[in-house]
């Protein structure tokens, strides 16, 4: 079993604060009997999604106190994550608005007929008219 370091991450999916990632450094490998390991872990297991979430405060504490990351790096990563999250939200909003507009346009076309059909009908009927 290896335990890996936690480092400042860059994933904007956190709702606030600095993201966590796993680094390359790890503790020395420990050999365990699988049954002993599972028994030892039983109290630490998390079964609900809400139990897996780590608050912004807890992430900052872990990085600063447990993994010796600088406050400058933590704050910079939190700002970068907020910027990326803002861009992602703006992009999603634009996409959903475009999709909603396309759906509205399709409904109008279905209700009143296609604009290309009405144009063809108008041009063909005008050419069939003869002048006196």
Folded structure, characterized:
7% of the residues are buried. Residues 117-132 have low confidence and may be disordered. This protein is elongated. The protein has a two-stranded antiparallel ribbon. The protein has 132 residues and is mostly helical. The chain has 5 helices and 2 strands.
Report the portion of residues in β strands.
5-15%
| Helix/strand/pairing category | mainly alpha
Extract low-pLDDT stretches: 117-132
β-strand number: 2
Q: Identify the strand order in the major beta sheet.
A: 1-2
Radius of gyration equals 29 Å
* Overall pLDDT score: 80
H and E order: EEHHHHH
Number of helices: 5
Give the CA-based shape: elongated
Features:
132 residues; two-stranded antiparallel sheet; disordered C terminus
């Amino acid at each position: 079993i290896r335990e890996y370091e936690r480092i400042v991450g860059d994933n904007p999916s956190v709702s606030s604060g600095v993201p966590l990632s796993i680094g390359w450094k790890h503790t020395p490998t420990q050999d365990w009997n699988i049954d002993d390991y599972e028994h030892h872990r039983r109290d630490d297991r998390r079964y609900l999604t809400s139990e897996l979430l780590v608050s912004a405060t807890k992430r900052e504490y872990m990085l600063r106190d447990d993994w010796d990351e600088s406050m400058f790096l933590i704050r910079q990563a939190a700002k970068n994550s907020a910027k990326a999250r803002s861009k992602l939200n703006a992009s999603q909003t634009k996409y959903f608005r475009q999709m909603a507009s396309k759906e509205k346009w399709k409904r109008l076309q279905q209700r009143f007929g296609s604009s290309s059909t009405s144009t063809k009908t108008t041009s063909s009927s005008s050419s069939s008219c003869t002048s006196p």
